[in-house]
Amino acid sequence: MSAGGQAGAGVAGGDAASAGPPPRGAQLLSALFYGTCSFLLVLVNKALLTTYRFPSPMILGIGQMAATIMILYVSKLNKIIHFPDFDKKIPVKLFPLPLLYVGNHISGLSSTSKLSSDLAFNLEGYIFVFLNDIFTAANGVYTKQKMDPKELGKYGVLFYNACFMIVPTLVLSASTGDLRQATEFNQWKNVLFLIQFLLSCFLGFLLMYSTVLCSHYNSPLTTAVVGAIKNVSVAYIGMLVGGDYIFSVLNFVGLNICMAGGLRYSFLTLSSQFKPKPLADEESIPPDLKG
Predict the structure, then answer these.
(1) Is 132 exposed, middle or buried (0-12, 13-18, 19+ CB in 10 A)?
(2) What is the dihedral of CA 243, 248, 249, 252, to 10 degrees?
(3) What does the alpha-carbon distance between residue 83 and residue 181 come to, in Å, rounded to a whole number?
(4) What is the pLDDT of residue 188?
(5) CA distance 246 to 269
(6) Would you say 165 and 91 are in contact if contact means Cβ atoms under 8 Å apart?
(7) Which of 68, 182, 232, 280 is the most buried (most CB within 10 A)?
(8) How far is the C-alpha of 157 from the C-alpha of 143, rounded, in Å?
(9) DSSP string, the chain
(10) Per the database record, which ranges form the Sugar phosphate transporter domain (predicted)?
(11) pLDDT of 234-276, one tens digit each?
């Protein structure tokens, strides 16, 4: 085989390798990172919305968007990360991701504030949970589609998502009285509350980033299932730690079915990732490349 042919084969092999599946370690670690961030954020938000009785899930979401914008913008100014500058084509490239993003955000925070750890039936709370599941699944699918490195990349998706939705969400919170309730809240001078509020904003950024990473390295279904396992895990902790769990056969069996299904899917996904890849068919290899 000629040197030119060997060089061409090498380039083709390199392209194929670069276009291959993501590393198994990255798939597992990104899913664990997403699950951990999501789990910690729910615990902090639960403390803010139920223990301190902070009245505005929407303002909490706005704080998380603001933290995302500031962290990414400062990182770009210091050339730590890169994403494209704004142009008029970016809203078209992103749509409908910003709407799904804010819907996922607000429905998740609202469900956390409406449902207590006793898991007693709350129609409004379960509607928010159902909406959050829909937004989470749709957000995962569209995030994976919009993360083309040649376009916005993962940092651009995060930054412009937050930029486009923070002002409409602020206007909505003002029109619904949410902003007024937040400004009149009597715990703003409480240092412990402020620390947890700022921690929630930072964890909100980490959750958005980990969601993008998990969607990049795994399927959207994997991201959704990890989120579901996290929700059930929080419920289990509420049974043991909260002290206000009221046992019910129906919701206890339902929780265990949900957890078993999520763990089974995770096990099957990981098993398929660690199976040895089949070797190329020897008959399809040209004679001059054998031996």
Answers:
(1) buried
(2) -50
(3) 36
(4) 92
(5) 34
(6) no
(7) 68
(8) 8
(9) --HHHHHHHHHHHHHHHHTSPPPHHHHHHHHHHHHHHHHHHHHHHHIIIIIS--S-HHHHHHHHHHHHHHHHHHHHHTTSS--PPP-TTHHHHHTTHHHHHHHHHHHHHHHHHH--TT----HHHHHHHHHHHHHHHHHHHHHHHH--TTTTHHHHHHHHHHHHHHHHHHHHHHHTTHHHHHHT-TTTT-HHHHHHHHHHHHHHHHHHHHHHHHHHHS-HHHHHHHHHHHHHHHHHHIIIIIS-----HHHHHHHHHHHHHHHHHHHHHHHHHTSPPPPPPGGGS-GGG--
(10) 118-266
(11) 666 666 655 555 667 777 787 677 667 766 766 676 566 556 5
Any idea which residue has 């376009």 for tokens?
151
Token pair belonging to 182: 């937040």
Look up residue 252 and give its two tokens: 């206890």
